[in-house]
Amino acid sequence: MKRGCPMATYLKRQVIRIIAFIVLLIIYLINSRQLTTATGYAKSNPGLATKYIGIMLMTMAVILALFAWLYRRQLQQGNPHHFKKRPFTTKSILQLFGFFIGMLAVQVLWSQLIVHHILPMPTNQSEVNAQALQLPFWNNFYSVVAAPVFEEFIFRGFFFNFFFAKNNRWSVFFGILISGCIFGFLHTLSFSVTTLFYSGLGWILAGCYLHFKDIRYDMALHFMNNLWSIL
């Protein structure tokens, strides 16, 4: 019996993984779009806005259950990086704050470049701020609580399980590099200097994930970063 071409099999598997990754991303974007729709009706039709909020919360619960189940299933099938729940200790919490300080340093540097008119203000940040004013509680809730969970599952958890599962130097290096670049691009939907800013934050988050090997640390770091940005 003839065996299939290894290269063809590999390419087919990668295409399936890319499609699966895109589908998971679309699921998350649909949920966030429900909040955008609710925000659009916040002033003109509060009742309809409330209905969309309810739909968003129900959808969020279903997606969270789906993502958590799929992530655990992936790790059960193959886990060369040895990702798992690890206890929070004084040392690990201090290290987590070290990553947080790194993210703050990137943002402070970037803000100074903007203040001194060396770099432009990110257009998407202005849009986010304007949207938050229409429906402040739910937009801030989504930004601080929901987005960190969903984005860490997608850009770190699923991404490394799909494409960079091997536990070696080059897999780790390119995994962090590409994960951050995708994270940056999807926050700007363009290739600009601002993309580099978000990519830098993505690289720190990816480094955090591979350092602690526990996605809860990454979610906590993302949570702290987003909370700081609205304070």
Number of helices: 8
| Strand-pairing-aware structural class | mainly alpha
* Total number of strands: 0
Residue-averaged pLDDT? 88
End-to-end C-alpha gap: 65 Å
Q: What's the quaternary structure here?
A: single chain
Sequence of secondary-structure elements: HHHHHHHH
Major sheet size, sense and barrel closure: none
Tertiary shape:
globular
Determine the strand fraction and express it as a percent band.
Answer: under 5%
Q: Helicity, in percent?
A: over 70%
- Note poorly predicted spans: none
Calculate Rg over CA atoms: 19 Å
Number of domains: 1
Structure description:
The chain is mostly helical and 231 residues long. The protein is built from eight helices and no strands. The model has no long low-confidence stretch (mean pLDDT 88). It comes from Secundilactobacillus paracollinoides. It holds the Pfam family Rce1-like.
Summarize the entry for a quick read:
The chain has 8 helices and no strands. With about 230 residues, the chain is mostly helical. Helix 2 (about 45-75) runs parallel beside helix 5 (about 135-165) and helix 5 runs antiparallel to helix 6 (about 170-190).
Labels describing this entry:
231 residues, mainly alpha, 82% helix, 0% strand, Rce1/LyrA-like_dom, membrane, CAAX_protease
What secondary-structure arrangement, pairings included, does this model have?
Layout (H helix, E strand, L loop, with lengths): L5 H35 L5 H32 L12 H26 L7 H12 L1 H28 L5 H20 L4 H20 L2 H16 L1
